[in-house]
Amino acid sequence: MNESAGLRFRRLHRPQPRGLFSSRRFFAAAPTGRSWCCRLKEPPMMKGCWEPNLKLREAQRLFEDQLVGPESIANIGDVLFSGTADGKIVKLVGRRIHTVTRFGKLPCGSREDEPTCGRPLGIRVGPNGTLFVADAYLGLFEVNPTTGEATRLVNGGQIVAGRKLSFINDVAVTQDGKKVYFTDSSSRWQRRDYMHLIMEATPDGRVLEYNTETKELTVVMEDLRFPNGIQLLPDEESVLVAETTMARIRRVHVAGLNKGGMDTFMDNLPGFPDNIRPSSTGGYWVAMSAVRPNPGFSMLDFLSQRPWIKKFIFKLFSQDILMKFVPRYSLVAELHDGGVCTRSFHDPNGLVAAYISEVHEHDGNLYLGSFRSPYIAKLDLSKV
User: Fold this and answer.
1) Which parts of the sequence belong to the Strictosidine synthase conserved region domain (predicted)?
2) I want to staple 276 with a disulfide (CB 3.0 to 4.6 A). Which of 104, 122, 177, 229 is the partner?
3) Which of 198, 219, 265, 165 is nearest to 13 (CA)?
4) Residue 104 has what pLDDT?
């Protein structure tokens, strides 16, 4: 594995916000010294575009019990690539799975092993046919999909502008391959503690830019609450960022006149967004593995305004037990400019496609990634 030499860092200087999303107005300091999340808005009614249906149950499972946690998916032609929970980058050809590379070292499979095994999350194809991969622990990599040669561009765990890169999550690459944007979901919590991050909702996530020519690393936005999926807009002057614990999608301006600014692309989603990927109609697919039912009860909404209960719960239950308290409900939505929902596909109780993390569209099909399920789900759009 090669290392990218000469990495330099700079912070993007921008004026402090004074508007609606100023930290002075938006956050309240907790007695512990950390910031607790403001109250979520009442969830939108599940009607209109959000009307529940069973369309995701038309999906078929691929490679069932042959891989675990294919979080993100990319394709070169008809060949699919993904990163799995055992630290591998895999190539899916026909019905066969081939290992391209792994970034970490064995053993793998336990919570304790994950930081050294590695956990590849977001994956993209660059303009030269290489793969750009965000590993939650080990860093940002560029991979030759044929030879498996991997070059580390950014080291995970390093201190950047006074904060640790603790949870590198998703990645996006410009068309010329000169800039790579990625999310660091938290400087406090690692991926293996993601339920703590969801429950605590601290504003310690960031969006960073890596320049592949100058090797310069730049913080372009900070103080985000669980920034997760990231997607470049066509003009490449801004990126969409899923702010998971706030159930919204932000637009971060990374170039042009508004560089350094941020606004909201869509607020108050009926679920908690994960990865964002382009759709063939010019919109964006957003995956949600948990919803905020209205009518109904959302545990995460309930806890968002009761930090003392969160602390109590974590003293009583492990992260795996807590996952069982979050009802499974898979929701895929196609969004367009202006934050307009144009269609959505549902699987109440996640009977066919559970714990979805990404929707990758290719050749008339949606390939559904998952952060913990032992399969990829494939939905033929002509059937829904």
Assistant:
1) 169-254
2) 229
3) 219
4) 97
